[in-house]
Amino acid sequence: MSAYDEGTVQVGGSSLLSVNRRQLLKVATASAIGISGFEWLDDRTLDAAESGQPLNRFPRMVHEYFVGQVAEAHRRNVRAYSQLKSKADAEKYVRSVQRKIRECFGEEPDRTDLNARVTGVVQRDEYSIENVIFESRPGFPVTANLYVPKGREFPLPGVVGTCGHSTNGKAAEPYQAFAQGLAKLGYVCLIYDPIGQGERLQYVKEDLTSSVGVGVREHIYAGNQQFLTGDFFGMWRAWDGIRALDYLLTRKEVDSQRVGVTGNSGGGTMTTWLCGVEQRWTMAAPSCFVTMFRRNMENELPADTEQCPPKALAFGLDHADFVAAMAPKPVIVLAKEKDYFDVRGGKEAIERLKHLYRLLGAEDNVALFVGPTSHGYSQENREALYGWFNRAAGGSNPHDEPEITIDEDKTLRCTPKGQVARLQ
User: 124: Cβ–Cβ under 8 A, 6 or more apart, which residues?
Assistant: First the structure.
């Protein structure tokens, strides 16, 4: 009998466990599919590994129920687009999604004084950076950097930049990069810190660090409390973006007829929502977000409170509808082949949007770019942004990103101590 038919596994001369050939084959099978540790000791695990069946170690009833609910909403959305047969149908659909989105997000707050002030200016060869603070609501400061090109004739196209879940908000490298790139190409770009990130932590300790966690944790902590009052954190986030546009349009350097919005990840979320709730944009480029609610649910993708608009599924809305609310204005959806925001959903969204835009006589005004890498506002996606905005704003069509120099966080700081919580 071979030593491997039945006997003991030895390491360094020590006997560890009695196994037979079938068990060793099971171990090899388990290792090949990524089961580690002592999981191979469980016959149910090994049998599942051999058969290729799901392990099902925890009940999936709740998840499968919600997948079914979202799948039904998905089917309703598909039917709605398939029933659009004429330009009049398409125009009616755009108006309907605008109304539904407004009901999801709620009424806008009062437009109060921005009380905007510039706290510092950084000079660069081709542009300047103004460190700006404005109030989106009374006593609710927003920290932002305004990138203003030099040596060009004003007014120029303007862009509001929304950030993803970076700890340092607007100072994160990819967000500095697109703001600089746009400025060097002749755009005035205002990029602002999201609530709970950068200089806008809301739950701070004495040392000015977050008591609950930066980004996702602050968003969920605030958002879940707002559920109790019937408020929606996504509207707070979107209102910051709307007021950022209000500030941008106060600047004489900006052409009010050429204003866009872009952002990645959580900023892609806000760009998408802002397409739905604000009609002054003339172009948009959400990155690493647009897919389908169904794909997110099937993939068990976690989401912040602001990424789940109330009543959206009940109204039959999907990500594509927030872009549709801007139709027929130019929008490019930027996606990634290896993103956890499922690119299959992005492709489905574009198919529906192409149908809508075609009926509106503007099929070329909506497009999809899929970068080859993983999640992030990488150079290839930024270059797709530049080309699209230049096309929409009447500029040239560059193929390469200008040279980018990343500034230290402190250079872009708007507040004396790095947090609005310490403003007097």
Answer: 405
Contact 386, 181 (CB under 8 A): yes
**Phi-psi bin for 354: left (phi > 0), alpha (psi -120 to 50), beta?**
alpha
CA 294 and chain centroid, separation: 17
The candidate with the shortest Cα–Cα distance to 202, out of 172, 174, 169, 230, is 169
**Tokens coding 371:** 């970068």
Distance CA 211, CA 214 (A): 8
Residue whose tokens read 């489905």? 348
pLDDT over threshold 80, residue 35: no
> CA–CA separation, 75 vs 96, rounded Å?
18
Q: Which residues contact 412 (CB under 8 A, 6 or more apart)?
A: 122, 129, 131, 145, 170, 171, 176
The more confidently predicted of residues 79 and 40 is 79
Tell me which residue of 319, 385, 133 sits closest to 243, measured CA to CA: 133
Burial of 284: CB neighbours in 10 Å, binned 0-12, 13-18, 19+: buried
Q: How far apart are alpha carbons 234 and 231 in whole angstroms? A: 9
Give the mean pLDDT of the chain: 89
Percent of the chain beyond pLDDT 90? Answer: 82
CA-to-CA dists, residue 134 to 141, 199, 227, 297, 418, angstroms: 6, 13, 26, 37, 15
Digit-coded pLDDT (tens) for 215-239 = 999 999 999 999 899 999 999 999 9
What sign has the CA pseudo-torsion 347, 352, 357, 358?
Answer: positive
| pLDDT exceeds cutoff 90 at 31 | no
Burial class (CB in 10 A: 0-12, 13-18, 19+), 285: buried
Neighbour count for residue 340 (Cβ, 10 Å): 15
Tell me the whole-structure pTM to 2 decimals: 0.85
What is the three-class DSSP state of 270? helix
Structural contact between residues 204 and 211, judged by C-beta atoms closer than 8 angstroms: yes
Quick one: CA dihedral 350, 351, 352, 358, positive or negative? positive
Question: 3-state DSSP call for residue 361?
Answer: coil
Query: pLDDT confidence of 55, banded at 50, 70, 90?
Result: low
pLDDT at 78 over 80: yes
